[in-house]
Amino acid sequence: MAPRGPDETPENGSLWTSTNPQQYYGGIASTFPQSPEFVVPSRSRTGSSLPLSTQEHRIIPHSPLFSSCALVLRTRESYEDFSRQSRIKDEGAAGVEGAFFTLVKVCMGTGALALPYAFLNGGLFWGALGIILMARWNYFASNRLLACKELLDSAALGADDVEANDVYAFIALKALGRPGAILVRAATGVTFVGCGVSYLIAASDLLEITPVSLVWAGSPIFTRLANTLLCVLVVLPLSCAKSLSFLSYTSFFGIIALLLSFITIIALGINHTSPTAAAAAAAAVEAGGSPSAWDRAFETDAKGLSRFFGIACFSFGIPPLLFPIQGSMPCPEFFRPAVGLALVSVAAAYILIAETVVLLYDFVVPPNILTVLSASPLSTTVRLSMVLVCVLTYPLAIVPLCESVEKALEGPRVARIYRWESLQGPTRYYQPRDEPEASSSSRSILDQCLGRREEISRETPRSPSDRPPGHMPRYQQPHSKSRTWSWRVLILRACIVLATAFLATLVPCFGGVVAFLGAFSVAILSFVLPPLFHLILFNARLLRREALIDVGMFFLGLVVCVGATSLTARTNIYPLVSSHTCPH
C-alpha cells in the first residue's frame, strides 16, 4: 500500500511510516485531532527549522515517539526560560547590591560626624525614634518621586530623554511649571553650596588640632582663616579640572575612613570610661548630684529637636539623589527594594553608633565628634584622613553647581544638527530646509526654567528618509556653542570656591551649618515637594485615601520644615555670625 499524502487523514487514527521523514513530521502530525497534552514546533517542508521564538506549534497525538520529542522540546524551552529568568534575577540581584552600596555611601557621608551631637540635643530615646521615622519618611518620599517618573514615562512626555540629574526638575516642571522647576533648581543649588561649606568647616576644624595647622598667635579667627585657605589651595585645582574621573574612588575611601574614625572613637571612648571614672559617676548619681543616663535619654527641647531634625535630614537626603542612582542600575525595576534595604541598614547603624558614642563620652559631645579625641598619633592619623576625604569630596558637590551656572550663562540651546556621513569617501553635507521650532520636551530643563526659546540652527534637521545611498546619519552636539575650557570658566569656579570659603569662615560651626542645611533645602526636596508633585500629577487617578495621605504629608513636611528652619537659624546661624562661636 502506497504511503498517503501529507494532507490525507488516516482512517483509524493509527500512525504509519513514511519514506520522507519531513513529510511524516510536518504533514501527518498536523492532521490528528488537537490534544492539549503535547506540543512540538513545526518545520518547513524544505527541512529547515524555524527559530524557537517564531516557531508555529502543532498538536500531536499521544505516542511514545511524539511523547519523547515533545518532552525534549519542552525541556529545552523550560531550560531557556529558566536561564533567561535566572539571568534577569542575577542582574537584578547585582543591581540591588550595587544600588544598595551606592545609597549607603550617599547617606553615610561627612554629616554622620554630627550625629552624636544631634542625639545629644534630641535625646537618646527621641533620637532613636526620630531616626526610624526619618527612614520611613524618606522611603515614602522616594516612592512618590519614583511613581511620578513612571507616570511621565508612561505618558510619553519625554522623561526618558532627560538626563538623570534633571529628572527631578523635569517632574517639577510638569507639576508646577517654571516656578516649580526654579524652586527645585534653587534648593539643589543651596544644598550644593551648603555641602561645600560644611566640608571646608569640617576640614578646617580637624586641621586646626593637628601638627600641620597654621596657627596665628592670639587670633582664633585668623587661625581658622589660614587653615581654610590652606584647604582652598587643595580644592581649587581639583574643582577647576576638566574631569573628575580621578575621584571615582573617593566615596569608597570616605566610607572606609568614616568607619575607621568611628571605630577609633569607640575604642578611645571605652578607655575614656575607666572603672574608676564610672564608679565616681555612679556615686554622683546616687548622691543626687547629677541625673542618670536614663533621665538624660529623655531630656530635650524645641531647640534640640530642631537641630536633630536638620542633622538627620542631612544625614539621609536620599530623595534628591534618587534618579542618578537609579539611572546607573542595569535593572531599574529592582530599585525600590534597594532603597528600603539601604534606609533600614543606615538607620540601624546611625542609632547604634550615635548612642554608643554619647554614652561612652558621658553626654559631652561636640558638633564634630572627631574633635573630642585626645592628642595621639592615632587620633592625628584619623583626623588627617578625614581632612583628605573632605577636600576630595568637595569638588563632587561644587562642580555640578558650577556646571549649572556655566550652562545658565551660555545662552539658549540650539536644535540638534543632522548630517550624512559617507561610508566610502568624504562626508556629504546638504542644504538646510526650514522646519518649525522643536517641542518643549526636547529642550533643556534649564532653558525652560529661564524661559529661553530654543534657536534653530542653520543646519536644520533632515528626515532619515532623505538619507542618500551609502551614507549614515551622524548627530552633532545639541549646543551651538560648545563649552570651551577658558579663563572665564576658571574665574567663575574660583569665585564660587572662594565664596564657600568665606561662608565657612563666617559661620564656623559644622553642626550648626549641617542642621540649618538639612532643615531648609534638604527638607524641601525630601519631604515637602514629593507628595505635592504626586498629588498634582496623578490628580483624579488617586483614591481618596491616597490623596488625603499626600495632602497630610505635604502640610506635615511644610510645617516641620518652616519650624525647624526658623529655630535653627535663630539659635545657630545668628549667634555664629554675630560672635563667630559655635553655640552648644
Task: Explain what you see.
With 584 residues, the chain is mainly α. 62% of the residues lie in helices and 3% in strands. The chain folds into two domains: 84-411 and 485-579, Sodium/glucose cotransporter; 418-475, no CATH class. The chain has helices spanning 21-26, 64-107, 115-122, 124-154, 167-176, 178-208, 220-239, 250-272, 275-286, 293-296, 302-316, 322-327, 335-360, 377-410, 445-450, 487-506, 510-538, 544-579; strands at 39-41, 57-59, 418-422, 471-475. The strands form two sheets. The chain has a two-stranded antiparallel sheet. The longest helix has 44 residues, at 64-107. The protein starts with 20 loop residues before the first helix and ends in a 5-residue tail after the last helix.
Q: What about the largest sheet?
A: 2 strands, antiparallel
Distance between the termini: 107 Å
Shape label: globular
Rg value? 33 Å
Structural class: mainly alpha
Strand order of the largest sheet: 1-2
- Using the coordinates shown, work out and report the CATH topology of the largest domain: Sodium/glucose cotransporter
What proportion of the residues is helical, as a percent range? Answer: 55-70%
The CATH class of the largest domain is identified as Mainly Alpha
Element-level helix/strand string: HEEHHHHHHHHHHHHHEHEHHH
* Name given to the CATH architecture of the largest domain: Up-down Bundle
Compute the average pLDDT.
Answer: 73
Number of strands: 4
The fraction of residues assigned to DSSP E strands is under 5%
The DSSP helix count reads: 18
Count of separate structural domains: 2
Poorly predicted ranges: 1-94, 413-442, 454-465, 472-483
